[in-house]
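Teaching assistant here, posting this on the class forum so everyone can see the example we discussed in section. The complex has four components, and the goal was to see what a joint structure prediction looks like when all of them are supplied at once.
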Amino acid sequence: MPLDHTARGVFPIAPTPFDTDGRIDFASIERLTAFYREIGSDGMTVLGVLGEAPKLDGVEALDVARCFIRAAGALPVIVGVSAPGFAAMRGLALASMEAGAAGVMIAPPNTLRTDDQIASYYRGAADAIGPGVPWVIQDYPLNFSVVMSPGVIRRIVDENGSCVMLKHEDWPGLEKISALRAAEQVGTGRPISILCGNGGLFLDFETERGADGAMTGYAFPDMLVDLVSLQSDGRRDDAHDLFDAHLPLLRYEQQPGVGLAVRKYVMARRGLIASDTQRNPAARLTPTARAEIDYLLARLSTRDARAGC
Amino acid sequence: MPLDHTARGVFPIAPTPFDTDGRIDFASIERLTAFYREIGSDGMTVLGVLGEAPKLDGVEALDVARCFIRAAGALPVIVGVSAPGFAAMRGLALASMEAGAAGVMIAPPNTLRTDDQIASYYRGAADAIGPGVPWVIQDYPLNFSVVMSPGVIRRIVDENGSCVMLKHEDWPGLEKISALRAAEQVGTGRPISILCGNGGLFLDFETERGADGAMTGYAFPDMLVDLVSLQSDGRRDDAHDLFDAHLPLLRYEQQPGVGLAVRKYVMARRGLIASDTQRNPAARLTPTARAEIDYLLARLSTRDARAGC
Amino acid sequence: MPLDHTARGVFPIAPTPFDTDGRIDFASIERLTAFYREIGSDGMTVLGVLGEAPKLDGVEALDVARCFIRAAGALPVIVGVSAPGFAAMRGLALASMEAGAAGVMIAPPNTLRTDDQIASYYRGAADAIGPGVPWVIQDYPLNFSVVMSPGVIRRIVDENGSCVMLKHEDWPGLEKISALRAAEQVGTGRPISILCGNGGLFLDFETERGADGAMTGYAFPDMLVDLVSLQSDGRRDDAHDLFDAHLPLLRYEQQPGVGLAVRKYVMARRGLIASDTQRNPAARLTPTARAEIDYLLARLSTRDARAGC
Amino acid sequence: MPLDHTARGVFPIAPTPFDTDGRIDFASIERLTAFYREIGSDGMTVLGVLGEAPKLDGVEALDVARCFIRAAGALPVIVGVSAPGFAAMRGLALASMEAGAAGVMIAPPNTLRTDDQIASYYRGAADAIGPGVPWVIQDYPLNFSVVMSPGVIRRIVDENGSCVMLKHEDWPGLEKISALRAAEQVGTGRPISILCGNGGLFLDFETERGADGAMTGYAFPDMLVDLVSLQSDGRRDDAHDLFDAHLPLLRYEQQPGVGLAVRKYVMARRGLIASDTQRNPAARLTPTARAEIDYLLARLSTRDARAGC
């Protein structure tokens, strides 16, 4: 099933598991994917920035994508295909779709500044991958240094029929969601799916602003699933209670640079991946940092049993 | 009493209160300063970035500093004197000291990149204000785009005898505190005071890493005072309980751009300043954002009565 | 005479002369302005970035502007009024106009990224200074990190009737001039004056692309005047011959950071200002650099006698 | 022959030639390399940023490197191996050396800021490629946003015995060369080769400051060879005369973004490559820009017959 604008719920961003020698750990890919299915995820995204995609070569990237897709079964898989050249982007996009991906995700290169530059880049990218591949805009200014206004996002959507989703991780970003939803009410506002990233740091309010769910890599995607579900059931206070219990850890994980190390450490402790190894160069956790995470998990476990790992 | 490296506890960063026409509101300066004294602050800092210092002219800046200093009584006041030219920096620094300031704070211009550039800039600044003025390094990469390693901070301290404190707001920043404290154990490591900013987002662990306290503008400085006090009493779990209760609001306040609007809104609701007016250009809160803050305050009030304003 | 869109020719960017103690050198302001008049300048611009405006306090800035305006006589003077706050911008703009300025120039703060942010900032600024003050957009991405597309410049012009000129110093920037001139041919394209900066590094082609002249601080503004005149007389080859003779020095002056030191050194050698002193912090020339400039001047003097100073 | 610190002269940066469909044009690789040999180049560098290396996949990159190396014969070839992950960097480095490369070049990722971060990154990279691979630091702040002081460059050299060369393209950069040469006079200053890039914009003085030659992609590498030769023969004025004749074109080529299009256009006109095609996304030349280049070539041809192509 190709991705379309009705997508909603939680699409965890999957890390790429490595063994302690830095080789791709396919067994952990299967285990992790099984976990995403068990907890009720609505899809998943692979080969994003935090999936260490730039550290894989072309063959490895496709192997990783295929393994996730196979393990995902009926769950839609979005494959990150960002690349400096459109030829490589097209290659990975077509191969991924052929392998059964539901769509692809495209981040902007960090040289883009003006609205015209951004819109022009996405026209070129959409052209390169062809009209049959549904795709997702990745809007992550803190990481890419590219700032997209609601206006330019609408322009990208209007100019490219195959663009169906926004991965929203601007910061601050709440007003952007409201503006995008308002823009859909007027004129030709073709609706898109909005799933929120940025580690989930504002997910409690993002869903209330009109987002369709989450696409982020927080080490407790099961919490994200529950949160989105509580919000869609109208149980606002319960949603915030759950979120607030996780916020101390979530905030700790959402640190630039070292965040992926935190995430993989917790996922390994939860048994979701065999090792927290990252490929070099990478930020590492000190023993003190690990002890701080352990302390946060211990505190969290009193309010959410899943943290008692 | 001039500032020295033994400073510890909480130095709230004071906003500059304006009336609804954008004029400086001196009555609110007095009210706010009285509040800082009542809650047990150990000092205060004025004319920082979030004090809208760049939007004041030279005469206004000195008037604001003087009003705060007078109201502060015995409380040490640190005055932000960052300026594009050393002449203006020297002028404000000397006038502030003459008015009774305890020290000054200097942020780096956003053009600095290398360790040598940073060290050279601070030598020049220290030279400009003269040896008799104790001063604080402001290390805030997210805002200034200048990244200071522990090594370059040590170098600044070693090269400038009048540098007595670090306002630490790197992100991530916990390992930096550990590295700085470790460096003081060896050789010529002259100790400095480390007070933490960044909205307080990691204050729960920063004190555990060896920071001496907080220097930040969170709208509940009374919570910061309690937190630092609990930590220094060894009541770790209680400190984290208090912190965690505030974290949802604190995180909401710690958004780039719109953060000051959040802070002034809450402070006005608490009656600490008469109006949440900022000078233009400034980011504003939408009604939805205000409602979200009200909701966060209502939730917080069940765990901390001070939020029931 | 207020500035309008018909302005053309050469508006030298004036440095602010200081004596060796860093005090404003008003005698050199008068001498320099007399020189600008003698060589046939069409106007001049003061208190720009290279006028060290941020290192002057408010009183000094106005004194400098007034001194230049008085000395300029009938020559239109544009005053840079960029400031972090709109109140200070308005203050300097109104005082300058009252003193006889022809218009003001406004640079964007380096936090702006999207077209909407840029347009919104300039609406706010235009609003702050009021409809009676003609103003100039300063578009200098290398220095301000703000990139303006032709589209957003047109939008600023369309939204603000008092915007009459673009100081163009994008790099690369030739296509931008062509695009702006093309845009004036369609629909509501209110024409603006385009004067080029960036040290003059592409002035040979910029005039051919449709620019109205130069606004830059190259130490031989007399060459700029001749170049623009040759181009408007249709003497293309002669214009390029003159330009090419100056290019080695012009290129040397157009270095980031140290460029102003080069410029003031040459101007002092030419006798246009008494001293090449800059206010601190500032980049300095080494003896080797000065010798290189002397060598470039000696070489230039064989093709342009004015360099034999 | 492995690269060492005695390397000097001109190492042209080779573009990667593509046919009009974007396929690698191996015949042009051979023609271009033959040209580099004929004009007396001392080596060459392939797969740099302007070699569009990021737009090649791993297999293509190695094919291109091998083709250049084979065609180069005895001429030493340096292969750019910059990559987000050390595993890919190591893979390409070892394969290139096995194919006969003389050394490799490593650019810093744009996230590095402090001296410690830079030094640590290069230690990791040197470790990854192993002690037997001589390598070059690429110091290009305008492109990579990483600024390296002379001090940190010396630190990299001192910490990594296999680092033998600096590709210097800082701007301004003359004082950096002087500082590095001065540092070699004291203590443990192991000498390195310094070849200069930045399009050659300051090559006239860089050799005088102590650089060993040029490593840049200007479309007339034969001029660079002559310039370096004249300088080493002590014919300073002749060197500057030659340089000045080329400066108008060289300056036009050295525009960010569009520079590679200019370079490939001129090289195609000279018959060095079959087509000026770049892989997408890429900046293109308008007809007006092409006419400007033609005009610059025509003017240049009156002073250097090689431009009469």
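For the discussion questions: Residues 236-253 of chain C form the longest helix (18 residues). Chain C touches chain D through 28 residues (CB under 8 Å). Think about how each of these relates to the inputs above.
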